[in-house]
Write a structure and sequence with these properties.
binds flavin-adenine dinucleotide, FAD/NAD(P)-binding domain, 20 strands, about 425 residues, alpha/beta, six-stranded mixed sheet
Length: about 425
C-alpha cells in the first residue's frame, strides 16, 4: 500500500516512520527545507503526561475576555482573530464544562502515557540522540489554595495511571538547588516522575533520517497547492505543476490542516494558538538547572536542554500571525528571570521563536479517517504535540494497517465532533 503524508513536523514524521515499518510505501511532502521546521522547531521541549488538561478549563472564557487589549496575559485573545474562531470558538466554550474538561483530560493522559512507552521503544530501536532527560519535571506553586487544588486534581489523574508526589518548598529546593532563590516564595509543588524532556526538532530530524533509511521518500520545498477529489475519494495531491498519487492520504500539516481540508468542504475544528519561546545559550548558573520546571503562576516552562535554557509559554489566538512582538519577548524574559534570578539571563543571549499550536476545539487531538474514503488526518495536538507524537504516529499507522492500538481510537476520532461537538 502507498501513503502520501502532508507535513513533516513531529506528527507527520512519526506517522511516516511507523507506516514504513509496517511495510507501506510512504512519501512525505513538506513546504519547508527539512523536517520539523515549523511548530515542532523550538517548542517547550517537555513531554508532559502531567499536563493533559485542555486549555478550555471551566471559566477560561473569562480569562480570554479579560485578555483583550493586554500584552502580558498568558492566555490571550486578539480581536482580529475573533471572526476566524466562529464555530470553533463555540465548540471550545461548549467543551469547558467540568465534565467534558475532565473527560478530555483523561483522553489526553491515556494517549500521553502510551506515547511515552512508544517513545521509549523508539529510543531503544533507533538510538536517536535528542538530549533526552527522564528525571521527571517539577511544578512550582506559590499559592497554598492553588497547591491544594492541584493535589486534589492530581488524585483524578493518579486514578488513571499518572504518578506524582506533592513537595514542600524545602523539598523542591533539595531536589533542584538552582531554585533556592525562589524557595521562600513557594507554597510547594509537585514532582511528576513520568515527564521527560528532549529537543523536539533534533528528534524529528533524527527520526526522519531513520524513516528515509526505511524507505520513506521526503519531498521538501514542496508546498501542497491543491487536493483533487472524485466521487468521495482523493485522487491526487498537487504541488504547483506536480501531481502525487497514493492509496491513502494523510494530512498532518499542523495548524494549516484545516485550511487544506476546507478546500475539500471539510470543517475540522482546529485553530492556531500562538506560543513563544526564548532559548539562552551558555547560561551562567551555579548550580546549573537540572530539572525542567513548570511555573503555575506564569503558565510557562523553563527547561535545561543540552547547554541551553529554554523558556516557553503563552497562548495567543491571533490567527496565522507569526510576528515576534518585543512586548511578548520582554514578558518571557521577565518571567524566566523570576524563576532563575541568579542566571543573569540577558535579552542579547536569547534566541526568540514563535509557533502555532494546532488547537482542537475540545483540546484532544484528531486522529483517524475523514468522510472522504481514503483521506486521514493526524492533527490538533495543541500544547501536547511533542508529548503525544510517538503515540499518535503509531495510532494512525495501527488504524491504517489494522494493528491493535493501545488506546481507544474513538476518543480521538473526528466523528466525535458530529452533533454536540
Ligand atoms: C511555544 C510552544 C511551546 C510548546 N511546548 C510544547 C511542549 O513542551 N511539549 C509538547 O508536547 N508540545 C509543545 N508544543 C506543541 C507542539 O510543538 C505542537 O503540538 C507540535 O509541534 C505540532 O506538530 P505538527 O507536526 O502537528 O505540526 P508542525 O510541526 O507545524 O508540522 C506541520 C508541517 O506541515 C507542513 N505544511 C503545512 N502546510 C503545508 C502545505 N500546504 N504544504 C506542504 N507542507 C505543509 C509545515 O511545513 C510543517 O512542517 C509547544 C508549541 C509551542 C508553539
Amino acid at each position: 500500500m502507498k501513503a502520501l503524508i502532508i507535513g513533516s513536523g513531529l506528527i507527520g514524521t512519526t506517522s511516516a516512520y511507523f507506516l514504513a515499518r509496517r511495510g507501506w510505501e510512504v512519501t512525505v511532502l513538506d513546504r519547508q527545507e527539512g523536517a520539523g521546521r515549523e511548530t515542532s522547531f523550538a517548542n517547550g521541549s517537555l513531554l508532559t503526561p502531567s499536563m493533559p488538561e485542555p486549555w478550555n478549563a471551566p471559566g477560561s472564557w473569562r480569562v480570554l475576555l479579560a485578555s483583550i487589549g493586554r500584552s502580558d496575559s498568558p492566555l490571550k485573545l486578539r480581536l482580529k482573530a475573533l471572526p476566524h474562531l466562529g464555530r470553533w470558538g463555540a465548540a471550545f466554550l461548549r467543551n469547558s464544562t467540568p465534565d467534558r474538561y475532565q473527560r478530555n483530560s483523561i483522553k489526553n493522559l491515556k494517549l500521553a502515557l502510551r506515547s511515552l512507552e512508544v517513545l521509549g521503544e523508539l529510543r531503544r530501536e533507533t538510538r536517536i540522540e535528542y538530549g533526552c532527560g527522564t528525571q521527571g519535571s517539577l511544578r512550582l506553586i506559590r499559592d497554598r489554595a492553588a497547591l491544594e487544588r492541584a493535589l486534589e486534581w492530581g488524585e483524578v489523574l493518579r486514578a488513571q495511571g499518572l504518578i506524582l508526589r506533592g513537595l514542600t518548598a524545602d523539598e523542591i529546593v533539595a531536589m533542584e538547588p538552582a531554585l533556592a532563590p525562589l524557595g521562600t516564595r513557594l507554597a510547594g509543588g509537585i514532582h511528576y516522575p513520568f515527564d521527560e524532556l528532549g529537543d523536539a526538532y533534533r528528534f524529528t530530524v533524527g527520526l526522519a533520517e531513520h524513516a528515509r533509511r526505511a524507505g520513506v521518500e521526503f519531498r521538501f520545498r514542496t508546498p501542497v497547492t491543491g487536493i483533487e477529489v472524485r466521487q468521495g475519494s482523493v485522487t491526487a495531491v498537487r504541488s504547483g505543476g506536480e501531481r502525487f498519487t497514493a492509496d491513502r492520504y494523510v494530512i498532518a500539516a499542523g495548524s494549516y490542516s484545516p485550511l487544506l481540508l476546507k478546500e475539500l468542504g471539510l470543517e475540522v475544528p482546529v485553530r492556531p494558538a500562538k506560543g513563544y519561546s526564548l532559548t539562552f545559550e551558555h547560561p551562567r548558573l551555579d548550580p546549573p538547572l537540572r530539572l525542567p520546571v513548570c511555573d503555575d503562576d506564569f503558565h510557562a516552562v523553563v527547561v535545561p536542554l543540552e547547554g541551553v535554557i529554554r523558556v516557553a509559554g503563552t497562548a495567543e489566538f491571533a490567527g496565522y500571525d507569526l510576528s515576534l512582538p518585543q512586548s511578548r519577548i520582554r514578558n518571557l524574559l521577565r518571567l524566566v528571570r523570576q524563576v532563575l534570578p541568579a542566571a543573569g539571563l540577558e535579552r542579547a543571549q536569547a534566541q526568540p521563536w514563535c509557533g502555532l499550536r494546532p488547537m482542537s476545539a475540545d483540546g484532544v487531538p484528531i486522529i483517524g479517517p475523514t468522510p472522504l474514503g481514503n483521506l486521514w488526518i493526524n492533527t490538533g495536538h495543541g500544547h501536547l504535540g511533542w508529548t503525544m507524537a510517538a503515540g499518535s504516529g503509531q495510532l494512525l499507522s495501527d488504524l491504517l494497517t489494522g494493528g491493535s492500538p493501545g488506546v481507544d481510537p474513538a476518543d480521538y476520532a473526528l466523528a466525535r465532533f458530529d452533533g454536540a461537538g
